[in-house]
Amino acid sequence: MTVPHVPDVHPAWLPPEAFRAAGARRVLVLGDDSAPAETVRAEVADACERHGGAVAAPGEACDLVLALSSAAGLPAEARALLGPEIGAEGFVLARRDGVTVVLADDPAGLLYGWFEVARLGEAAFGEARPARAHRPALRRRMLDHWDNIDVHPVMGQVERGYSGGSIFWLDGALRADLTRVRAYGRLLAATGVNAVAINNVNVHTAEAHLLTDRLGEVAAVAAELRPYGIRVHLSVNFASPITLGGLDSADPLDEAVREWWTRTTGRVYETIPDFGGYVVKADSEGQPGPFAYGRSHADGANMLADALAPHGGVVFWRAFVYNHRQDWRDRSTDRARAAHDHFAPLDGRFRDNAILQVKYGPMDFQTREPVSPVIAAMPATRLAVELQVTQEYTGQQRHVCYLGPMWSEVLGFRFWGPGERAVADVAAGGGLVAVSNVGDDPYWTGHPLAQANLYAFGRLAWSPELDPAAILDEWIGLTFPGASGLVRDTLHEMMDGSWETYERYTAPLGVGFMVRPGHHYGPDVDGYEYTPWGTYHFADRDGVGVDRTRATGTGYTGQYPAPWSEVYESLAECPDELLLFFHHVPYEHVLQSGVTVVQHIYDTHFAGAEEAAGIRLAWEKLAGSVDPALYARVQERLDEQVRCAEEWRDQVNTYFLRKSGVPDARGRQIY
Ligand code: BDP
């Protein structure tokens, strides 16, 4: 096992300097012969070789001990930490008498402890630290790749990918050199991610075969990720028994079909004993599913769960199910209601190893949505919350948009009011999942600053209570080692409020979309207005917004428990930022902020575009202080962000000026 360093690829948050503090010390590792423990030994050796430290033998003096609690010959400093169970993937970190100790019950915990030491840098070797247990709050912390083997004529190779091609496949075949996959696993492990699904949820023909005759490719990827404690998952096509197995049905209650899944899954585990499980998008946007046989989603998910159970696998069954062929003239339908309508009645009917994967909002990864009520509605079901790290609707990695604050809000949202359980608590036994934003781009993420989103995802999945601004600083510190205060402060200033900036110049007050159909980049206010997709704003000459109240609208507010059902129902109490998601209001409706809706639209769009220009200006201060190639890449993206923000500003402002006839109170130029 060697630590993967890939030439010509940006090291992201793990540059060699990140290990300077630990690598300059004498380090003792007491692990076992598992893959992650082997990785820790390799990491320590690599860091020590680079930075002048040494690998200590048992009994020798050392500055850092990384040990399994079950290891023989624990030094006294580590023995002192033995006590209550630390638990799966967790570790205890302490510093006493000049020795820093990481103690874990399992090798994965050891690995996470090693990366925590790297994150702390010199601080890990300074003052004494009382013992502190670190444990992941969410059990599964997974990235979904929407990668295809082949290049899709419209979507490219990675669906909604903004960072080049797949890191797994090239020219229709698995890449010959998978070092980069291992380097990716390393980056993810350093944030706490422990699962990856390697292919698109829309499973096309070539990718469907990964389950059977192309399984060797999955095994090869699993071999690269295993050392970093990451389990591989596959997206599978519900119709596989027909398309791959030659059966005439995929009915989940048909014995032959169940038999096929059992056999096929058995073969998967013979090849990949630690395979994680399946991801399924069924009866959604044209994907096959159980509805064709008059069966429920619980029937479908349970069939796969039963096939996986003997091997310890899980099925992530996506709740993103809605009618994408709806009649836009019919105001009684509401896409926001769909997931709850389909799934809430099935609560309690899913197997224990079936995890319902729910998008954070009821629509589709918009810049601002209320938290999906499905998350509150299924107490007897294991749930995972799904986020979109890939910035499909948040600037497509051309715009700076740091999403940590949004995710932190989602995870901390309390459906049942203050003091009650938060979303992160509800999902603790399921997990947090996100669509990955990496590709074969030399910076991994196209926009180098979009790396921060990947980093923040993992950190929040491990510790949802972390402050996203602090995570940002952590990321800056690791990624720009030795950077001056000016560089660090400037990056912070550019990124910390960038989600809200993006929100200001795009669709207003939670109404969503207004993007160009198909690729979803840039403004098109009416782009989806008269289409079958169910993503409307209902702007007319009198007002704008979607009436989702129980009193006069679609009744969606009724899917929330109190107090939110009442808060969202009430025009006076509904938070401004979601007003148009829940209510259709006249343009001169006065927001809680004291300005009218239409004036708010003008103000925020002028402000947002100005802030985008301010972000570019801030970056220009850093010319000469950061790597020139990285500087140029960010600069080119910022030029596009500023251009695009102005385009949004002008289209949205013009549209609402013409619809409403209400001039800007501040007399600014609107076209
Ligand atoms: C939408 C994307 C589409 C995905 C879909 C999904 O536009 O490409 O297939 O989500 O989550 O946001 O399945």
UniProtKB/TrEMBL annotation:
- Name it: Alpha-glucuronidase
> What species does this protein belong to?
Nonomuraea thailandensis
| EC number(s) on file | 3.2.1.139
Record family assignment: Belongs to the glycosyl hydrolase 67 family.
PANTHER family xrefs: ALPHA-GLUCURONIDASE A
The taxonomic lineage of its organism, from the top, reads: Bacteria, Bacillati, Actinomycetota, Actinomycetes, Streptosporangiales
GO MF term set: alpha-glucuronidase activity; xylan alpha-1,2-glucuronosidase activity
Q: What class of enzyme is it?
A: hydrolase
Q: Where is the Glycosyl hydrolase family 67 catalytic domain?
A: 133-444
